[in-house]
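Q: Start with the shorter request: fold the first protein.
A: Done. Sequence, then structure:
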Amino acid sequence: MTQKKKTTKEKDKKWIQKATKRKGTFTAKAKKKGITTAQLQANVEKNPDKYDEKTQKQAKLRETLVRINKDKKSKNASKEKK
């Protein structure tokens, strides 16, 4: 029995679920500093050397997820106008 190779699309279907294993940790870091997640993301992007690799990746993931959500909202808004 041979298995066919998964296409890139099939492999990447659940990348968000895999990337968000420890939900709330980036938010917790921001709350501990007394700032919002958007502010922490901006701080990490301005001074990446001050933060560990995990925090840098979390900031990048937040940026990506915010962009995806924004794109999704704009697509829904354009559909409603039609």
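Q: Next, the second protein, separately.
A: Sequence, then structure:
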Amino acid sequence: MSEWSEGAAGPDAEAEERAARRGERAILLVLATVQFTSIVDFMLVMPLGPQLMRTLGIDPQRFGLIVSSYTLSAGVAGLLAAPVVDRFGRKAALLVLYVGFLLGTLFCGLTSSFPMLLLARVVTGAFGGILGGMALTIIGDVFPDRRRGAATGALMSAFSVASVVGVPFGLELGTRYGWQMPFRLLAVLGAAVLVFGLRALPPLRGHLDTRPITGRALARTWEALAHPNHVRAFALVVALMLGGFAVIPYISAYLVANAGVAEAELSWVYIAGGVTTLVSSPIIGRLVDRFGKLRVFWIVAPFSAVMMFAVTVLPRVGIATAAVTVALIMLANSGRMIAAMPLIMASVEPRLRGSFMSVYSSVQHIASGLGAYLGGLILVEAADGSLRHFPRVGAIAVAATVASLYLAGRLRPAATAGPDVSADADRPLGHAIEAAATRAIEPY
């Protein structure tokens, strides 16, 4: 039950309701700013790729390690945290995780070598990778059902703000003053958020589980991991994340090295992508509600494969063509997750949903990290600074997408044993939940 009252009978009910709303708004502001800083920190590394490779003197393989270290660390940390995270108050857990995240971000802003930056990203990922799930958990604890959808949508608006404002501003700051500067600014902003969170968040300890961590909790986690339908869902997310992150981290480096886009122009590319995603996400959500999850996925996913391969063979073009290409990639990749996430959630038995999501988040992060690392292994920097073999990486993204089309068709609704997931009623799951899923899971 929420620690913020929803009102009570009697003459003071209206005043109590107003007080509860004020408390909820303060909590939502804390969570949204935490989400904003963590998303900007994660996303910013990718467009900073050209500068990182140049100033640190690293090749695509080592840049891939910088990207994948965050997600791999987040995946492992999520698995380790799953059995114990409910044994602490939500406020304490969120703020401790946020302190660790901010220390990692500050470390990124103070280092100037590849080994130290790699270590900083491991630390940042270990804490930052769990923050998004914790924020959504607090939404579930604090907000009553009739206001939870709106709260989730407001929380996930942090992704749009990060895409349209945070990342381009950080990229411009990094271009002018060095790649460390945006991380330093994020750490300062986060420190202010931390102080506000200490005052605004209630303890949120009503969920505490004081029982020893014995076989029961571990068995529930294993059941979520080994359930045949869940295995198919995990396979689907592996295909989506591995294929996408084999290409996405290297787009900015390829645009600068091969397509002739200046580093100073990259911020316009990401502004275009962020605005496109902001507009397209609710439209795709409504299409999913109207025409069905699987049908929309089977349309949008192949389009994402075409666009990811297209960017890997892009010749020297102007900034306008590059911006349109990246915007379409971001539209397609976010769209396929808007369609895929309701498919996945419908395949999970309600009693296992909490354990499933803990494992799912870890699988998603680890698959993303492996994709980024795989892309770095294939790419080679030529003597003239251009990147070679990017089309091979694009072919992997296409193959993974083809696999995802098959895997999506193999998912079954948890409540039925019907032969085809498309036979599901495809009931609307709510645009806010769909937007939350895509933005929490995939940054493009």
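Q: Describe the second briefly.
A: The radius of gyration is 21 Å. The beta strands are 380-381, 387-388.
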